[in-house]
Description:
With 73 residues, this protein is mainly beta. The chain is 0% helix and 55% strand.
Amino acid sequence: xxxxxxxxxxxxxxxxxxxxxxxxxxxxxxxxxxxxxxxxxxxxxxxxxxxxxxxxxxxxxxxxxxxxxxxxx
Length: 73
């Protein structure tokens, strides 16, 4: 099994975390939602797997390319 980093594509604030460690996720399933310039931007799983780490908390500020979670695919 491979560990896959989930990165942000935009700078923003972590508005809501939708999944928890141990949750199974499907490809393109939303893990968390960023808020940037009053828009909600979903951060999704790139492939099927299980969440093994969430590296941010709600309210955190992240920049483009920040690793916010890891899944085991």
